[in-house]
């Protein structure tokens, strides 16, 4: 297939963060930012062009913290599919460019969507694009800075930024409601491992679910006929482990998981049966069920 959009590659001297990057860094990031746009960047109006009669952005043009390169359609769809976006979601695209991710979230998945874009011309173009796509009732474009605007209402956050910008956003994202889904084109989140890697023919994305904070000591009621048990959890992002103490005996948890606000762990009862505990975490309390083959017991817990 001819490389019809090869001329859209940004020049190697593109300025990041308002200053010139080293050639090595520039090449590395440009390679990642442009890898998927070369063949299938989708023009908004006419072949080979982005934008409309009022504004024609150039792929690779500088932005406040990162240049503009659109995510290709295939990955946009896959990112939103992976996040299982539905009409009940509020999707925020941080650094929205021409608005294609919020527009796709509304048009293809029925979600409400918000794009935050620093470049005023780009933000205005994104708004016009949402009107042309007939989803202006569902899509809001905010002309603003992703580091200043509040996006805490999002149930899904999409990113196509830079590794260091993802890391700068990470503390804010980790404070979001447990279960918030995050999808990033090309760049990861440092030592916060993704829950899933998204591969398309031309690009890679990463997917995370914001985990509830469950670290610490919990007092549980409803396990193994004992008045109470002590659950001790150690946590790093969505990775958890720990012990349970019942009737004076402590054992390591046999597999523990936190997915959003859903805590699951297993242990052996005093009779040697495998007990599975599934609970919903809400701040410093949890509620759920302990299940062994034919018995279900209600479990309640409080963090100490
Ligand atoms: C790589 S583009 C991604 C565009 C879009 N999210 C997509 O995937 O097609 C990054 C966008 O972020 C914008 N941007 C850069 N720094 C920003 C900031 N601090 N706040 C808001 N937008 C920013 C740029 O102008 C650019 O449009």
Overview of this protein structure:
This protein has 304 residues and is of the alpha+beta class. 20% of the residues lie in helices and 34% in strands. It contains six helices and 18 strands. The chain has helices spanning 23-34, 37-40, 73-82, 100-109, 120-132, 163-174; strands spanning 15-16, 19-20, 90-94, 112-117, 139-143, 156-159, 181-185, 196-199, 204-209, 216-221, 229-236, 239-246, 249-252, 256-259, 262-268, 274-282, 285-292, 295-303. Strands 13-12-11-10-18-17-16-15-14 form a nine-stranded antiparallel sheet, with no helix packed on it. Helix 3 (73-82) crosses helix 4. The longest helix is centred in the middle third of the chain and has 13 residues, at 120-132. Mean pLDDT is 87; it is low at 1-28 and 34-47. The site of S-adenosylmethionine (SAM) has 25 residues, from helix 4 and strand 4.
Question: What topology emerges from the helices and strands here?
Answer:
Blueprint: E1 15-16, E2 19-20, H1 23-34, H2 37-40, H3 73-82, E3 90-94, H4 100-109, E4 112-117, H5 120-132, E5 139-143, E6 156-159, H6 163-174, E7 181-185, E8 196-199, E9 204-209, E10 216-221, E11 229-236, E12 239-246, E13 249-252, E14 256-259, E15 262-268, E16 274-282, E17 285-292, E18 295-303
Parallel strand pairs: 3-4, 3-6, 4-5, 6-7
Antiparallel strand pairs: 1-2, 7-9, 8-9, 10-11, 10-18, 11-12, 12-13, 14-15, 15-16, 16-17, 17-18
Helix pairs in contact: 3-4
This protein binds S-adenosylmethionine (SAM).
